[in-house]
Amino acid sequence: MSDKATLTYNGQQFELNVRKGTIGPDVIDISSLYAQTGAFTLDPGFTSTASCESTITYIDGEAGILLHRGYPIDQLAEHGHYLETCYLLLYGELPNEAQRQEFEDAITNHTMIHEQMQKLFAGFRRDAHPMAIMVGVVGALSAFYHDSTDINDPQQREIASRRMIAKLPTIAAMAYKYSIGQPFVYPRNDLDYASNFLQMCFAVPSEEYKVNPILARALDRIFILHADHEQNASTSTVRLASSSGANPFACIAAGIACLWGPAHGGANEAALSMLAEIGTPDRIPEFIERAKDKNDPFRLMGFGHRVYKNYDPRAKIMQKTCHEVLNELGIKDDPLLDVAHELERVALSDPYFVEKKLYPNIDFYSGITLRALGFPVEMFTVLFALARTVGWISQWREMIEDPSQRIGRPRQLYTGEAQREYVMPEDR
Ligand code: CMC
Fold first, then answer.
1. Which of 210, 249, 283, 428 is most buried by a 10 A CB count?
2. Does the reported pTM lie above 0.90?
3. Catalytic pick from 192, 226, 305, 312?
4. Which of 77, 43, 71 is nearest to 55 (CA)?
5. DSSP designation for 71
6. Is 187 helix (H, G, I), strand (E, B) or coil?
7. 318 lines ligand 1 (CB under 6 A)
8. Which of 347, 323, 219 is nearest to 275 (CA)?
9. Residue 304 CA, closest ligand 1 atom number
10. In terms of Cα–Cα distance, which of 196, 194, 164, 170 is closest to 184?
11. Angle subtended by helix axes 213-226 and 82-91, to nearest 10
12. What is the pLDDT of residues 406-422, one digit of tens each?
């Protein structure tokens, strides 16, 4: 196969280089197109555009495959732990025992946040959405940790990376505690990452809190499933924000803002609300019809994906985790799970969803699982943000370390007025 693509434009032929990845589709390098032809390309929603070169995560959407540094997501979720996946995403290899110990110790020792940051929380209304608090407080880390904002210093980048992975659970738990009017619970360094998060969310000073290891393991797996997902909207936001040289805390706050939307990280909240609205399996046909109606904005939340045109591999593990959690909690009948199973069955046998290759995504079962773990719906996207932080950071580091990195500056197809003369107010 040729490593050149030929473009005919204005009667002239132009040669463009074709790049080949380790796996995945070829990429036509159009970076010289404007210089050669004076024309831009147009790709709203970036459906055909690779925005960068990356070695971190690979997705084959047709086959339903997700690899981190080459390792399949199901193997990482089955055999590994979240911090091990963090290490893998950040440094490219699974850690040996000494590396694992050093990394886990470092993360554990950075879990506390500057005491003065507590005062920030008091500035928010009690009914503030915890994602609003996350955007504000994570951005504010740059006002507290000046010694790790210089992106040109590898040591500072390393410290900022570890700080965010360590502190996001603390901030997320504080956002939750604040919303329910309970005192903040400090991190405990004798607990693993997920157990510590559970105790910061659910412990109260007046009684002892025992972490259920099965639930902690389930939460750890949920974190693994959300750790990274290639160049999705929030990751691209982080990359674009950081391409200007902005500090890492501000860039991760930008990623959190993007994640909040219902088409992205907010879908788990929306999926659970939808299942509750459907209520009983007999109402499913009505909602299926609405989802298919072009004049109705309703969509099946937790269904469909820009990249996966097959079962989202994360959704399968999430479904299994959901059953494990409900089992452990002795929840024999969850009406929402009944609705979810039936909705999945009906949709997957409906020609509309089959033809458009719309399958359940990770968010379809995550809401039921997180709710069973005790989290209110407003916290769902916060948990996603917490777990995705390592992905954002890994992609940010990769970008900063790439010598060819430049500020991201897309162009446009301008369809507004051509140049015209200013009209004086009395003549309008
Ligand atoms: N329900 C009904 N129809 C749908 C759905 C859905 N959930 N998703 C896509 N379609 C239809 C859509 O109407 C369009 O039909 P047509 O070709 O006739 O106009 C076709 O399928 C393609 O949809 P699209 O909007 O062009 O696809 P996209 O790649 O731009 O959007 C998506 C992907 C995830 C935003 C979309 O599938 C969606 O809105 N899903 C519901 C929200 C959701 O579950 N999001 C979580 C994504 S996974 C977690 C994450 O990564 O954040």
1. 249
2. yes
3. 305
4. 71
5. E
6. coil
7. no
8. 347
9. 37
10. 170
11. 20
12. 999 999 999 999 999 99
